[in-house]
Amino acid sequence: MRLGGPAPAALVPWPPDGFLGRLPAAVALTGATPLGLTLEGGPTLVADLYAAGARLVLPAGLDGCLAWLP
Fold first, then answer.
1. Residue boundaries of the structural domains of the chain
2. What's the DSSP call for residue 36?
3. What is the rounded CA–CA span in Å between residue 24 and residue 33?
4. What is the pLDDT of residues 10-30, one digit of tens each?
5. Integer Cα distance of 7 and 66 in angstroms
6. CA-CA-CA-CA torsion for 25, 27, 29, 35, nearest 10 degrees?
7. pLDDT tens-place string over residues 34-55
8. Phi, psi (deg, nearest 5) at residue 15
9. Helix, coil or strand: residue 52
10. Parallel/antiparallel/unpaired status of strands 28-33 and 36-40
11. What is the C-alpha separation between 43 and 34, in angstroms, rounded?
12. Taking the alpha carbons of 6, 7, 9, 14 in that order, is the dihedral positive or negative?
């Protein structure tokens, strides 16, 4: 996400144990699956997620290629 530009949310696949407890109050959990967590936050969201222990942060909440489908 640091190179891909802005997105309305972030996906953290396979978060480490204790990850949610290390997040600042400004970060909100908006979705969870067995594969990962979707989170929203302010302008420091990506940095906050990496500081909490995320190994990978991907953009979430974008239309991407689906917007082109009929």
1. 9-35+42-56
2. E
3. 21
4. 999 999 999 999 999 999 999
5. 15
6. -120
7. 999 999 999 999 999 999 999 9
8. -65, 150
9. coil
10. antiparallel
11. 27
12. negative
Q: Tokens in use for 11?
A: 């996906």
Burial 30-39 (b: 16+ CB within 10 A, else e): eeeeeebbbb
User: Could you give the CA distance from residue 37 to residue 28 in angstroms, rounded to a whole number?
Assistant: 10
DSSP string, 2-30: TTT---SEEEEESPPTTTGGGS-TT-EEE
Q: What are 9's strand-pairing partners?
A: 60
Q: Sorting pLDDT into bands at 50, 70 and 90, what band is 7?
A: confident
Residue with tokens 């909490």: 52
Distance CA 46, CA 55 (A): 11
Helix/strand/coil (H, E, C) string of 52-66?
A: CCCCCCEEECCCHHH
